[in-house]
Each structure stands twice: as C-alpha cells, then as structure tokens.
Design brief:
heterodimer; A: mainly alpha; B: alpha/beta; six-stranded mixed sheet; four-stranded antiparallel sheet; 9 helices; about 40% helix
Chain lengths: ~260, ~250
C-alpha cells in the first residue's frame, strides 16, 4: 500500500530537515502575512464592533454593510479584487522597507476579511461582560470611553482570546490563498516544486510545515490563556494542562463554543 | 438630595408614580418596601443610572441628569452626568467589583483616572479606607479570593474613595450569607454615625432601627409613610405599612 503511493520520500525529507533559503523566505512570508492580516482584522473588528454598538445609526449601518459584504463573498474573490481593482503602485515604499503590490493586496484582503469575522467575536466578548461592571464604572464617574478602555475591554479580552486563537490558526492556513496573485509564500513554494518535478511529495512536506506553525501557535495560545487566567483566579493552571486541553478539544474551537464557520 | 414628584415608566409598567423625598445633609434615610415597590428604581434614578420621565431630582442643588435650558429641562451631556456622579457613591447589591484588579486597585481606580489624583496619594488614602472597613491586610487580593462580605466592604471603600456628598446603598446585604451581613452593616452603621449622608434601600430592619434618622416606606411606586424609626416600628399608621412590617418582623 505504501509502495503504491508514489512519493519521493527524499524530497519530503530534504524539505523538512534541510530547507534552503528560498523556502525559508516563503515560510517567513506566510508567518508575516498571517500576523499582519490578523492584527489588521482585530483592529478593524474592534472598530466595527464599537460602531455596531453606537447610538449613531450611520455607524451601525456601515458596520452591518461591512460584515455583510465581507462575510458573504469568498476570500479568494476578495483577494483578486484587491489585487486587480485597487490601484496600488507596483512597489509600496514604507521608508524602512517596501512591499510589492501583490503582497500588500494579499494582506489587505485577508485583513479586511478577517475584520468582518472579528467584529462578532469582539462584540460577543464585550456583551458577555455583565452590565453591573459598566454601571459600577459609571457610578464612579467614568465616562463611556474610560469605562470601556479600563474595565470592559480588559475583561472582554479574556473571553475573546480562545476564538481569536482559532481565527489565527485559520489565518495561517488561509494565507495560502494569496499564492494565486503571485505572492511567494509556503504554498506557492510547494506548487513551484511540484510543477517542476510533478512530485506530490512537495505538498506533503508543506502540509508538515503548516502543521508545525499551527502547533506552535496552539502552544502559544495556551500560554496566553494561562497568563490571563492567573490574574482572575490567582491560580496557575499548568502549561501542560492547557496545551493538552487545546489538543483534545480541537484548538479551543469546541471549548469556547463559538459558532464555527467554514472557510472559503 | 431633593426629589420632587418623580415618575418613571418601564415600557408599560408605571414604576414610580410621583415620589417626593428630601434628605438633608448628614441624614441617614432607610427605604423599605416590598419587591416591585420601586425603591431600587428610585435609588438608581438618583444617580441617573435610570432616566426619569418627569419630575426633578437634585443633589446639593444641582439637577441630576438634566440642565436648565431657558425654561425647560434638557438631558445633560455625558460629561456633566459623569461629573455629577463623582459626588454620589453607589453600592450595588452584587458588589460589581472589577475582577481583573486587586482590592487596592479597585479603590484607587476612580480617584486616579477620573479625578486625576496622584497615584501615591491615592494608594495612601485607599489603604486608610480599606483599613477602615477592616480589610487592610487584603489590599492585594483579587475579588475572586474574597468572601461576599469582604467584597462588599471593598465596594464601600471604593465608593468612599471619591469622597462623595451622598452615598446610596441598593440592598447591600441582600446577596450575602447571614454570617457576613453583620460585618457590612457594622461598617454602614459607623458611616451613619460619622455623619455620612446616606440613603439605604434595605430589608434589614435591625439596621434601620439602629442607624436611620428616618425610615421611608414605599409601595407601588409611591411613598406611603415616613418617620423616625421609633415611630415607624412602634406605631405605624398606614395599613400596608403594618401589613408589611408584620410579615418582616
């Protein structure tokens, strides 16, 4: 059976044990894109969530429109749109570094798409904080902004971290879609290897690397959750316990009970 | 505090039907009554946690939640309402301590971030307040590690930290186990004797007898009887007051 699967194990081996610098560059690109897009998603999601809760109806409308459009269309389409339709210059110079337009378009599309999903996660996190907290803050003379910043959001952050961790997990995998507009990240590297040799082993090797990335993140997520839990309960749940919990419960997805939607 | 003919309706429920009350400085007034009589709603109207539909509430002569625009009363801006609230302390039935901050941090939070008090000074004053409520040794504890009675005492210290002109207590001991209500009531009694202006919604008749200058009975959205505790508990006049007290005492 194993012999029937035509794989060059030596390709896989070399990719895993002895990657070259081109590959390392691609790996770095994947991480970089995922992190920046996720941060963008969090900021946009926070903005959209606050707008959703505003008394000013145009804010609520815009927020709703944003989420409708970007949850309702495939990420791939959004990526193509940002690349083809937006008039980005070929190279965007930030002074210290520069980005190719495909890179920027890819990050932009992923970030904006992510924001539409983050809005609900953040809003639900904020709502989960009981009203008494804002009432106590207001009774002490705090205004809405101050109460949000110092009392509600810090507590909401604790609730938001598990589903956020899941989102970042997805982001690292979804970043593979930007290969379609020419960004040289992990998947594009595997594609190139395959198109040159028609050896499917390249994909198996890249799957391994994605697994490495997501596993590292699972561990990091466990550490973050543990750190946040300490200040609330004053206990230390061991890192091992947390990591095991995430492993068995599917990366925090099931445990947090958030509605999980399939990626495009 | 002066309330004049306050009305409030929640959807179809006319909860406050013309409440008028005056509380002088250094006075301690206890409000008692059955559930649904409107006493908690009235208290929450005083610091504008609830908006009133008609009538007027003033603290130290300033109308709460509204300002005079020409002849009419117009809803006040958030900034002014927040500033008014710094003069009014509110102690909740469920404490509402900030769980992500220690007892000390809870108490210094408002003075530092609302009033702009220097952190060292705020800490020093907070330590004094926590000692005053008997929790000097718990200043670095998180609320999750404190008992209900301890949490409520921290909540009282937190409200006192803003040095308010008026303290409001919304059934402060109703969510506590009987063993710990005593420690909270003792703190409140001390405050009353020190001359703090207090309005307390409570079911603790013993406390009302010992600490109140005046007891007020509310029923179905109006005040039906008020008077000093001796008169109130020895010889109530209103029918419903008698019925209520006979059930409680």
């Amino acid at each position: 059976m194993i012999a029937a699967i035509q794989l060059s194990w030596h390709v896989i081996w070399s990719r895993i044990v002895d990657p070259d610098s081109v590959f390392a560059h691609a790996l770095w690109a994947t991480v970089y894109i995922s992190v920046v897009a996720q941060i963008m998603g969090i900021l946009l999601g926070l903005l959209a969530a606050l707008m959703r809760m505003s008394r000013f109806w145009p804010f609520r409308f815009l927020s709703g429109l944003y989420v409708l459009v970007f949850r309702g269309t495939p990420v791939l389409v959004q990526i193509m749109f940002f690349y083809l339709v937006l008039p980005l210059p070929n190279v965007i110079d930030f002074g210290a570094f520069s980005l190719r337009s495909s890179f920027a378009a890819g990050i932009l599309a992923l970030g904006i798409n992510e924001g539409a999903y983050m809005r609900e996660i953040i809003r639900a996190g904020i709502d989960s904080i009981e009203r008494g907290q804002t009432e106590a803050a207001k009774s002490l003379g705090m205004r809405y902004g101050l109460a949000m910043r110092r009392i509600v959001l810090p507590q909401a952050a604790r609730v938001i971290v598990p589903p956020l961790g899941n989102e970042f997990n997805n982001m690292m995998k979804t970043s593979s879609l930007v290969s379609i507009i020419g960004v040289y990240e992990l998947f594009a590297d595997a594609q190139q290897g395959y198109s040159a040799t028609f050896d499917a082993a390249y994909f198996l090797a890249v799957a391994f690397w994605y697994l490495v990335l997501t596993s590292i993140w699972s561990f990091a997520q466990a550490a973050i959750e543990r750190k946040l839990a300490v200040s609330e309960h004053g206990d230390e749940i061991s890192l091992r316990e947390r990591a095991v919990a995430i492993w068995t419960e599917g990366g925090g997805m099931v445990r947090s009970g958030w509605p999980w939607r399939a990626r495009a | 505090m002066r309330a004049v003919d306050v009305h409030k309706t929640f959807s179809r429920l006319h909860v406050l039907r013309g409440v008028s009350l005056e509380v002088r400085q250094r006075e301690t007034v206890c409000i008692i009554g059955a559930s649904g009589s409107g006493k908690t709603t009235f208290l929450r109207c005083i610091n504008h946690l609830e908006k009133i539909d008609s009538g007027l509430i003033e603290v130290n002569g300033h109308p709460i939640g509204y300002r005079k625009k020409k002849e009419k009363l117009v809803e006040d801006r958030e900034r002014s309402i927040a500033r008014q609230r710094t003069e009014i302390g509110f102690v909740f039935q469920r404490f509402n301590l900030f769980p992500h901050k220690t007892a000390l941090q809870n108490v210094i939070e408002a003075p530092v971030h609302v009033r702009g008090v220097a952190k060292d000074q705020a800490i020093a004053e907070a330590e004094t307040l926590l000692a005053r409520v008997g929790l000097g040794d718990k200043k670095d504890a998180y609320p999750g590690k404190l008992s209900g009675g301890q949490q409520q005492r921290v909540a009282i210290a937190r409200s006192l930290a803003m040095k308010p002109a008026l303290m409001l207590f919304d059934e402060p001991t109703s969510a506590l186990d009987p063993e710990v209500t005593g420690e909270v009531l003792d703190v409140m009694e001390e405050l009353a004797h020190e001359g703090t202006t207090m309005i307390v919604v409570t079911h603790e008749m013993g406390f009302a007898k010992r600490a109140a200058d005046r007891v007020v009975m509310m029923d179905e959205g109006v005040i039906i009887e008020e008077g000093p505790p001796e008169h109130f508990f020895e010889a109530p006049t209103h029918e419903r007051t008698k019925a209520f007290l006979s059930k409680i005492l």
